Amino acid sequence: MYPAYKYDIQLPSHMDPEKKYPTIFTLHGKGSNEKNMFGLVAPVSDDFIIVSIRGNLILGAGYQYYELKSLGNPIREMFDQAIGQLEAFIHYATEKYPIDAAKRYLLGFSQGAILSMSLALTMGEQLKGIVALNGYVPDFVKTEYPLKSVNHISVFISHGEFDTVFPIRIGHETAAYFENLTSNLTFKTYPTDHGVSEENQQDFVNWLKKDADVHVEKE
C-alpha cells in the first residue's frame, strides 16, 4: 500500500528493538502543516512514536485534509474520503513501524481535532485515546455515520474561552456529547483564542503519560 499522506515520523531515541511503542498520530489545523504539530508532543517523544500526518490538499502555504463549504460546514464527500484515508493510514503505519496497536492516540488541532473526534467515533476501540484541541463533531457524523462505542476510549477535549473561530459554546456542546458516550472524558477550557497555551500543552502531556502508563523523566 502507498499511503495517501506524506508524514514525518519521530522514533524514541533509545528504542528497544524487541518492544512496540505507544504512538501519537498528529493532525494539524487548516492551512498548517505536520511540522507545526511536533512541538506540542515533543515532551513525550522519548516514550512515544510520533507520526505527524500532513494534509494532502494544498491551502496557501500550508495544507488541509478536506475543504469547506463554509465555516463549520465540511464538504461531505471530501470529509468522508479523509476519514477513510486516515483510518487506512493508521493501519499502514501500524504494520510498518513498531507501533503498539493497543496504545494508539490521535492528537489534533482545529480541523485535526474535528477529524480526531470523528475517527474515534468510527474506529472505536481500535484507538486508545484522543486529544482534541479546539474542534467539534460535524452533525452528519453524529447522525449518519455508523458509530462505534467509545466507552473505553480516553478523551481529552480542550477549548479556548475566547476562541473567535469556534466559540466556547461549541467546546461545551462537544464535551457534553462525549460525556454521554464515555466515562473517560477530560474537558478543560483555557483563557485563549484559537490556539494552544503552555498550560494546555502541559495538561495534555501529563494526561498522555498517565493514560499510556509511561513515565518521562524531566531533565
Strand content: 25-35%
| CATH structural class | Alpha Beta
Overall tally of domains: 1
The 3D shape can be described as globular
Mean pLDDT reading: 96
Please give the largest β-sheet: 7 strands, mixed
CATH homologous group name: Alpha/Beta hydrolase fold, catalytic domain
Strand order of the largest sheet: 1-3-2-8-9-10-11
What would you say the CATH architecture is? 3-Layer(aba) Sandwich
Instruction: Pick out the low-confidence regions.
Output: none
Q: State the end-to-end CA separation.
A: 40 Å
Q: What attributes does this structure have?
A:
219 residues, alpha/beta, Rossmann fold, two-stranded antiparallel ribbon, 34% helix
Structural notes for this entry:
- Keywords: Hydrolase.
- It comes from Paenibacillus alginolyticus.
- GO terms for molecular function: hydrolase activity.
- This is Dienelactone hydrolase family protein.
- This protein is an alpha/beta fold.
- The protein has helices at 35-41, 76-96, 111-123, 139-144, 168-179, 198-212, and strands spanning 7-10, 21-27, 49-53, 57-59, 62-64, 68-70, 73-74, 99-109, 129-133, 154-160, 185-190.
- It has a seven-stranded mixed sheet with strand order 1-3-2-8-9-10-11, with helices on both faces. Strands 4-5 form a two-stranded antiparallel ribbon.
- Helix 2 (76-96) crosses helix 3 (111-123).
Give a concise summary:
The protein is α/β, with parallel strands linked by helices and 219 residues long. Helix content is 34%, strand content 26%.
Write the layout of secondary structure elements.
Elements: E1 7-10, E2 21-27, H1 35-41, E3 49-53, E4 57-59, E5 62-64, E6 68-70, E7 73-74, H2 76-96, E8 99-109, H3 111-123, E9 129-133, H4 139-144, E10 154-160, H5 168-179, E11 185-190, H6 198-212
Parallel strand pairs: 2-3, 2-8, 8-9, 9-10, 10-11
Antiparallel strand pairs: 1-3, 4-5, 6-7
